[in-house]
Amino acid sequence: QVQLVESGGGLAQPGGSLRLSCVASGITSTILTTAWYRQAPGNQREFVAVKTIGGVTNYADSVKGRFAISRDDAKTTVFLQMDRLRPEDTAVYYCKIGTSQFQNYWGQGTQVTVSS
User: Fold this and answer.
1) Distances (CA, A) of 48 to 28, 58, 75, 95
2) Checking DSSP bridges between strand 10-12 and strand 110-114, what pairing results, if any?
3) Would you tell me how many other CB atoms lie within 10 Å of the CB of residue 93?
4) pLDDT in tens, 26-71
5) Angle 7-95-92 (CA atoms, 0-180°, nearest 5)?
6) Nearest 5°: phi and psi at 64?
7) Among candidates 59, 104, 82, which has minimal Cα distance to 8?
């Protein structure tokens, strides 16, 4: 059974940092794309960051220069380093993995709250 387990969410002050992790298991096909999305109450789910198998990254304008996506292939884990956090970053963050079999898998979500 495919599972994506997220962790690292919590409460941070404005200007603070958090590091999210997404550990994948049970995926037998090649992982091509890893990405992060987020969804705030009343809003649609929005794109945050993506990294392809070739190492190319892309970020939403709202997080560019503050967030960084990376992954550890040996441990099948994707990370999202979030620095200089803002209250507008408050949302549930979801990990997404796309495979060579054109299948997309989603994590359960982890809450990030930025407040003083």
Assistant:
1) 26, 8, 22, 10
2) parallel
3) 23
4) 999 999 999 999 999 999 999 999 999 889 999 999 999 999 999 9
5) 70
6) -60, 130
7) 82
